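S1.2 Input.
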Amino acid sequence: MESEVTSVPSGPNEKVDELEESATKTQFKFCCPLNWCTTEYYSIDKYDDSIRVGGESELKSVSSSATNKGESDEDKEVNKVKDRSPTSQTVTKELDELEESATKTQNDPVNGAKHSDKYDDSIRVGGESEINSVSSSATNKGEPDEDKEVNTVNDTSSTSQTVSPVTKEQDELEESAAKTQFKFCCPLNWCTTEYYSIDKYDDSIRVGGESELKSVSSSATNKGESDEDKEVNKVKDRSPTSQTVSPVTKEQDELEESATKTQNDPVNGAKHSDKYDDSIRVGGESEINSVSSSATNKGEPDEDKEVNTVNDTSSTSQTVSPVTKEQGELEESAAKTECDPVKRPADVEHSKNDDNTTVGGESEITPVQSAATEKGNMDMSGNMDKKSVEISEEINMKKQYQRETEALLDRLQLQDKHQQKLSPADFFKVGPPVKQDHDTPEKDIAHTFIQKLMMLDYRARYIPVRENSPEVSHSNPVEKFDTDDTEDDDLDALYSTNVDSDQSNIKTDVHPMDVQMAVFHCSDSFFKQNMITKLSQCQYALPLLVPDPVTMDIDCPLWTFRQIRKTWKITEMKDNSNIVTMKSMPICKAETPMVSFLRLGSPSLSKSELMNTLINNRHKTFFDRNCPGSTKSHHLMDGVAEIAWYCPAGKPNDAFTDCIAFCNLHGDALSNVKQRDILTDKSSVNVVLVPTLEKNDKNSAVISALHKSTKPLIILIADSDGGAVQMKKGKYKMGLNDKSQSKVSEELKKIIGKILSGSHETFQLESMAEVSGVKVDEDDKACQKGKSAAMKIVDLLQGMDVSKIKDTYLPCQGQLWHEWCKINKDLYHLKGNIENEKCEIQQKLMQIRQEQCKVSSGEPMKLFIESLSSLSATEKDYFLKWTQILTDALSTDDLGSILQIYDKKWAEILALKKKHDKSDLLKKKQTDLDEISTQLQSATFGLEHIFREMGQIYEAHASLEKQPKRGQTDWSKYPKLAAELMISGHPVELMDGDAGHVPLTWISGLLDEVIKKLGDMRVFVLSVLGVQSSGKSTMLNAMFGLQFAVSAGRCTKGAFMQLVEVSEEIKKDFEFDYVLVVDTEGLRALELEGNATLHHDNELATFVVGLGNMTLINIFGENPAEMQDVLQIVVQAFMRMKKIKLSPSCVFVHQNVTDIGAAEKNMDGKRRLQEKLDEMAQLAAKEEVCDAECFSDVIAFDVQKDVKYFAQLWEGSPPMAPPNPGYSESVQELKTTILSKAKQSAGITLSQFKSKVHDLWNALMNEQFVFSFKNTFEIAVYRKLEVQYGNWTWTLRSNMLTIENGLHTKIKNEKLHKVELNHLHQESNKTYDEMKQAMATYFDDDRDKDMLVQWRGRFESKIKEFHDELLRGVQRKLDEVIQQKKACKKLDDEKTLFENNLLQKSKELAHQLKDKANDEEELKKQFNSVWSDLVTELTKDIKSIEDINYEEDQSTVLYELGFEWSLTNESKISGKYKQIAEVGDYVYYVSLTKHHDHENDMESDTRGQRNRVFEFVSEQTTKIKYSWKGYFQHEEQELIRSLIDDVEKQSLVTIKSKPVATRGYNLTYLQEVANDVKQKVTAFQSKRKYALKKEFTVDLLLYVFHRAERWLSESHMTFKGNNDAHSYVESKKMDYYNIFRSFCKGSSSAVVLGQLICDKLKSSTVEAVCNNTAIDLATEMRCNFPAFNGNRSNLEKHVLKSLAEKEDFNGFITYIRHPRKQAETYIREEVEKYISTGQGEEKALNILKKNVDDINTLVRQALYDATEKVKTHREPDMWMDEFSSLLKDKLTFNTISCQNFSDLNSFDFLKEEIEKGLVSIIKELSSLPLDNMKKFRMKPDEILIDQLCNCCWVKCPFCAAVCTNTVENHSPDKHSVLFHRPSGIKGFHTRGTQDLVINFCTTLVASDRRFFPSHDSEDSIPYKEYQRGGEKYASWKITPDESKLTYWKWFVCRFQKQLEDHHKRKFQGKGKIPSEWRNHQKQEAIDSLDDNYL
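S1.3 Output.
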């Protein structure tokens, strides 16, 4: 709405003119209602129309009570006047007199509106504001006025209220008022009292939405007389038109005249705004309430006075109309009146063109009572009353200020952070990238400010704000002035200055510095420190003195400066030349001159802008009024003193030659007294900016004091035209009027420079802690406690040479650790007797660890650990910060000087290199440079070294497993302490940059503790790689807000890792919880030039590329030629990753690109980069022996998306240049790219990361990285997959066994005659589908699914193959059963006929012999007679099947092949043939020559005992001769062994293919095998240089026959059982005799049939129970028996344990030679042991019982069902058919013919008889020995052997360790075994010697030793390149491994003699057993299996 200003016609009354003139001399004193500023003197200029407070204005009358001495007026009441008329209200003549009286009274206003300068229209404070009437009571001679009340006047008129023309009396009143001092003070304690002038062009003072100017009610009494109970009635006017104050009566004029003489004691004043301010707005609604003043004579008090509030709710502003001449005199008079300052909390620096100030929500300025005596005397009571009121008002002011602060924080969404402070943890997270170039909602400004600041974007201070609602705008809306009048009216409107608009709904934007300070106040000390550090990096001024928004104390945030370092170059003249010296130090320690800038009053020029031109013309160091986003008001900056440093660059154009601190006090220095005093005291130079310089003006006292001070002073006069003048030494003044900014700046620089060139005081930040009255943040209890703990440590180090500190107090990480690293690397370059050498090295390493343990109890480390352990979290953070600060300070000076020397020396070397000088001088300088580099390394000392010491102490004690002694700290807790710090965001050293080594034990312990605390979280590993000083750390810090060390030169040594949590707002988009950032030292380091090689960079690059899910390749500059070395290193690293199946992604970052916006240039740069990468890929491919034509063959890479260009970091030249905003944008773009790529990655778990660190580093220790890399975690995941594979295959196998069992029964019952594969598929499909689903779930849902995916297809294929092969195997078995059934079909039919005949004959004979039933002998005789006849008839044409005579058949076959009986018999008798596969040395079987061997064969029959001696000698001679010639080395032994294994395998396959079970055994089977064996032996020796004796062939044949004997015997017994009628009838004789006897005894058919059925059931139930029990028992053991419930390597572990426990050497040899055979033996033994002892037996019996119960239930149910079904039919055959059909699926039961039981008439009786017999069967079954399972088809051990042993059994070509892959054909995965063993165990020996090899394969492949891949090889191959040895070597992956499997060392020592005898060689020479091995005990060996086998 618009505000209507109604002019007031004035009469030509002269007094009115005089009144106006007087008014101009009157000074009103306004104080800030929100405590922003101190009271200032302001003049109300003659053209001010009104004082507008808020939206509506009220000019309220002043009610004054005046009494004579001692007289009092009581119980007076002014009636309420309510006027709602649409026209103005006229006040009576009495009111005029009251006003006249008031002009003579010195008023004591309590609440005053904020001042607006000359052109201000109004001061607006809040929404509604009231300037309330002042009630003053003046008494004579101490007589009190009591009980006075001024009623509230409420005005709700819709238009402004205007003061009408006044009468003569009113003129006099106003003239008197000109002499009155008005003092307005801030009710909210924003400012202390200050004298302000209300300029002549101010129209009004607006406070809030509505404004009231209230009348002053004054009570004056005579001496001693009091007025009591007076009440001024409320006047409420709601008229829609203006309300006008009418002329007052004479009495009222006099009353007002009296009031003008009253002295007012203001308490609160409104905030000041410069001369162009239109208004000050405070809050939503504000009231400036009336002041009740009590003036007594001679100390007599006024009591019980009440001033009522006047409220005005009119919808438009209320405006004081132009006054008459008298009113003008009143204003002139007011300009000369003085008010006493009372209070000033703070001030705000104001802009000349500010229109208004808005503060908070709703402001209320409440009334205050004061007492003043007429003669200046105040009695005791009045003084106390005044004091209490002041205290009350101060509290109210603070509360109001807090409300305003809360309103600001609420707008910034920080309302909850004033108590719960922002901490680094709140922003130390990976969040969404900050949007660029978008307006930000007001509620998000603070958060966006922090984010931008953290990434070094100095535009954080200039964030564009988007309107939240129509009520908020960037500026005042443009007013529209509509008129329909004439052109003259238009011109009048154009030139009018009195057009107001309704601003009630307009809120200004939050001032940018309010955002900064709000965040500052809402932050904890650590986040403040981060924030201030970032502000410093952005080259912004930093808060030095800060008024506390709550307590109003002055704070000095010294702590926030502690991390800031400044570097500058000092230029000095020496010997007519400029000498430039560099300085770098913590700014808190820097002693520099300080120039302080102060403002007195309200000059038109901006002080901050002037300072900016001094410090940095291109950058706004201090926020000034012309900065983007500046508003007319700022709430939190008044009284803040900011400091900034000018740091010269050592160049001619430097503004100053040395570092200078510039301090800027915001606000008027008159108001900010405490800050002003501090700064002027601390400054070297004081610069004061004043509007004018006059002797008696308000500034003169301050100017005079500064002028008298010894400190140099420069006075800048805004309105003066004078030039710079030196008044006296050190005192200058300079006019600024009509001077350009640059000219002023230049002159000021000269003056300051001149002053500082002489002697001057210096300023040090730390000295602020000594300033009284200032609260220093470092005085915080937690801070002091942390500092105290840190000081204890640093005190120990003080005074020492920094280069000696580490050696003295941190000895573990110095020479000892470096020596350990060097010796440890020797483990990978062993030569000679490598196991002994290895043991010696390990002993040295242990000695170093012992030394470390001895020296690890230094006092500093004790104190450090104790502090970490005992301090609270906050104290610990302070402690660490202080430790870092204090330790860095120790080495600052030394480092600076060393770096200068280094730079100088390096420059000299470069100069010589340019001249191509290769003289001794260059070598000497390079040597000097190396020494300087060493000094640099020694002089570096910081917190990271203390943590490194912790790691080394831990590693030393952990390796020795030493427990802490008394007085020592518990080293086992070190990882926990470090883990807590890592979780809280501290960087942790991953690779020691000085030693170039990764402390694996420490890193593992630390990560284990992190996992304990967080869980095994998934992390995305982001690593960065690049050249030295290319800005890697800076980039990471800006991107994620990290704290990696950043400094010039070698900023990062080694590698550091830092854990950053993914914020909740984006976590849902990612599969990981944290980002683990790995920052590394730069490649191509200058200080490593002399002693580092390309290998170091390759090592580092490979390490960090391998660790990262993504690697940032940081390149500095644009020239690919300069990047060539780095690119080659990087490409080679990625190529290595491809070869070891790691696939990280990469992004190339070009930093310091001059023009990142030039698209064409960038495209060309990308093309050149692509070409260079392709070229490097080809070079690296040759190096790594890999096929790659281009970089995209190595890694997925898109040059368009994966190359980023970064702007230069600095916007200008350091050290004064701020960061380039384009750099921050580039960082955000890169962050977006990283996060988008990260979405496609699941990351890795922390445990995977730990394993990867181990694997990569261990591989890097070897020169052959690819061959050496062992992915431990991948192996662990694969082992788990193997276990699952075993479970899946067992599910299929056990199901198929059940199916097979059922089908087998059906075949036996002749219910199935053909087994179709489709039928088997149908039977197994349900289980197969369930298993496939379980498999899919595992691959899809397992946490390691990303790693498992590489094997998924292969394992799915393997499962399908397994299932199909299982089905085919079952089909083959069942087909064989069907064939067997068919083969004995005739016999089965004859058996049935035989049984029927036998029953019939028995029945007939029994009828004849029923009288002799008790004569057992007779019965037997008669039965035998019948039996013999029937058997003869049955077997008359059948030949009995004989048993095999295996021994005789073997001899026959051998004889037929030409081998003598004696030779065969001798071998049989000795039994040595059984061990031929495990013979250690086959020389016994070898002839010297083939011819000699033939002669020996021809003469062998005639040789006797005499020749055996010769043979022994011949054997030894042959052995020696062949060994010497090299004919019969270990390789030949292995070839013979391979021949034996092949022959055995093929022979068994041949024999088992014969139909022995269906057709019986035949001698031809052995003959066929024997011929094949002989042919193979002949073929083998035809290719050798030696011949094999006949003994070899005989032993080999006997061995093969021996291996086949068991299978042949069992198969033949099966055939005989099924086909031998003689055997059958003999087995049935006793059963049929019992039946015969039953007939004889007269038993019924039911009894006999029941007995017959029970006999058949007995055999079938035993078979069924045993078969089912075998399957169930195998399942039980497979699932729960430790040896059987894992993968192949788990079985291996238990086999080895068993061998060690038994100490069975022969078993060991069998295991070494034939591991599968030994595994099968172990399984059989364990099954036997399980079912015969302890808990296993109990479980087995329970399984048996369950199966017995199941069979019992099945038979009983079948009996019941069959009996029920045939009850009505009475046919025995029908019952029998039904009964047998019910059993056919579970039991083998051939139907019994019932032709002999036709008389059966009760099936229930039959059922009962069978049940009786069944009881005994079940009882017998329940006690069945478990060994009986061996007699049946299903055997638990065979089932388990089939399950566990169908895997890979390929042996290592060096040591014969067996591949432990659970899958048999696991190509393309190479063979591998977790742990190898000494090769001499299998007989491997050094060529040309008898020395067995003692070395482990895993040691050999890390050594520099070589080997011959075959016996006839002439060229040896390095073990490190063993895969070049041929397919048998290339198919294996043998990785170097430091882990020492104690088991095999114990074995070698325990069975040394047996091994030497077995192999006929010795552990000697190079194969000598290390003495350390003999210390291992058996239990230690067994335990080592648990530690090392998965």
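S1.4 Remarks. The chain has a mean pLDDT of 74.
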